[in-house]
Amino acid sequence: MTINYILAIDQSTSGTKALVVNSEGKITHKTALAHKQYYPESGWVEHDPIEIYENVKQVITEVLQLASVSLNLYKVLSITNQRETIVVWDKETGIPIYNAIVWQCRRTSDFCKGLKEQGYEDKIQSKTGLTIDPYFSASKISWILDHVEGAREKANEGKLLLGTIDSWLIWKLTGGSVHATDYTNASRTLLFNIHTLNWDDELLEIFNIPKTMLPEVKSSNDIFGRVNDPKLSFIGLPISGIIGDSQGALFGQKCFEKGMAKATYGTGTSVMMHTGNLVNAQNGLVTSIAWGIDGEVSYALEGIINSTGDVLKWVKEDLGLFSDFSEVESLATSIPDNQGVYLIPAFVGLGAPYWDPYARAAIIGMNRNSGKAHIIRAALESITYQVKDAIELMKSESNIAIKELKVDGGATSNSFLMQYQADIIGSDVVVSMVAELSSLGSVYLAGLGIGIWNSIDDIKLLNQESKKFQSVITSELRDHYYQGWKNSVKSVLV
Predict the structure, then answer these.
(1) What's the topology of domain 253-432+464-494?
(2) How far apart are alpha carbons 408 and 387 in whole angstroms?
(3) How much is the pTM?
(4) 29, 308, 320, 386: least buried by Cβ within 10 Å?
(5) Is 336 exposed, middle or buried (0-12, 13-18, 19+ CB in 10 A)?
(6) Are 289 and 308 in contact, with CB atoms under 8 Å apart?
(7) pLDDT tens digit string along 257-314?
(8) Residues 6+ apart with CB under 8 A from 118
C-alpha cells in the first residue's frame, strides 16, 4: 500500500511548526521557528503577521528538505492556529494595516467594560456562547478600525479584510484568492452566531464592523482552496483540516463522545469538554463549536486560562530562577510541598471562572525560609489549580462527570506537573505519547476531507499510545491545598 503524506502547519502564540505526517498518523519530521513578541504597553501583546507568514514558508521549506519525500506523495496541507489573534489587511496590497493583536492582549478591557455597562452581555452571550472579554477578537478589530488612521473609511469602502491567523495564512497561501475560516475559529470572534451558524448582523452593528471584511465560514474538513504561492514548491496542493488549536487538540485526543475532556498546556491552557449538543455556558465558562464536519457541527464547553506555560517562561526569563526547563522538575521536588506559597499568574488578568481582566499577578504566603524552589513549585502548581477551577465549573454546568482528563502540550513532559494535576483534580490524567495533538487534529480532519481516512472509526485506531497518572493523595490534603489556592486568588481580584 502506498504511504501518502499530509503537511501540517501549527501556528501558535510563540512560534510556527511544520510537520510531515504519514497516512498511518505518524509524525515523521518536524521543524519550528519562533517569532517575536511585541509588548508596546502594559497588557498589550502583538505579533507581526508578515513575519509569521515568512516563518510558515521557511518551516515548510525546511521540513520538506528533512523529509525527502517525493512531492507527489503530499496530498493536503492542514492548519491549526492560535485562535482569537486577529489580523486586518488591505484587500488590494495584501499588507496588514497594523500588527496582529494577540488573544492575550488586554488593551480593550475598558471597551468591553463599556459594552457590559450598556447591557449587551446577555445578548452577546446568548448568540455567541462567549462572555464579553478582550480575549476574543471583536473588540480588537474595533480598536484597529478606530485607532489606525484611515482604517474606518477604508473598511466602509470594502477595501479591508479581517481574519484570525488561519484566514490570514489561507489568504496568503492561495495568493489572495481565498478569504475563509472554519466554524471553530469563527466561533471565537464574538461576531458569529453559534445557533444559526452565520455572522450576526446585530453583533457586527454592536462592534461597528462592516460585514464585507469577514471571511466565508466552512466546515473544518472542507477543501478551502489550493496553494498558489510561487515561492512554495507544491503549487495546487489542497488546503483542508482548518481548526483552532484547542479544538484541534480535542479532535486529536479523539474526544469524539459526550463528556470526554482534554487540557492543552501552552502559553495559556484550554480545558475543553465535548458536549455534543449546545450547552449554554454560565459562570465564566464559554460555549464553542468543537468542529464542523460535512456541514454538521458539534459543541464544547471551555474554560480559558490566560497564563500557564507563560508563568514558567516568566520565572525563567524575568526572575532568572532557572536556566533550562530540564531543571524545573528537580527543583520543584526538592521540597516536600508548597509550604503555603501560592503564585497567582494574573499577568493579563484571570480567565475562567473569574473573568477579571484587572486582576494582577502575586506571590502569596512567603516567609524568610522561602526560596526559589518554592516559587518554581508554586508556578507549576498554579497551572494545576487553574485547570481544577475549570473542571469543577464544567461539572456543575453540564452535570457530566469527567472520569479522566486527556492532556497535551509541552508541559506534559514534566512528570511532577502531571502527577500533581491528577492529585488535585482527583481523576486520572492521560498523557498522549504524541505531543502535537493540535496538529494531529487538523491532520485527521484534512485526511477525512480528502479521503485518506474514511471515518472517525479509522482515526480511533491511530496513535493509541499513552501514559496514565493516578491520584495518590488523600481527599483531605487535596482540599487543603485547593482551599489555599482559592483564598490566595481572592486577594488579587479587583
Answers:
(1) Nucleotidyltransferase; domain 5 (3.30.420)
(2) 13
(3) 0.84
(4) 320
(5) exposed
(6) no
(7) 888 899 988 888 889 999 888 888 777 788 999 999 999 999 999 887 888 888 999 9
(8) none
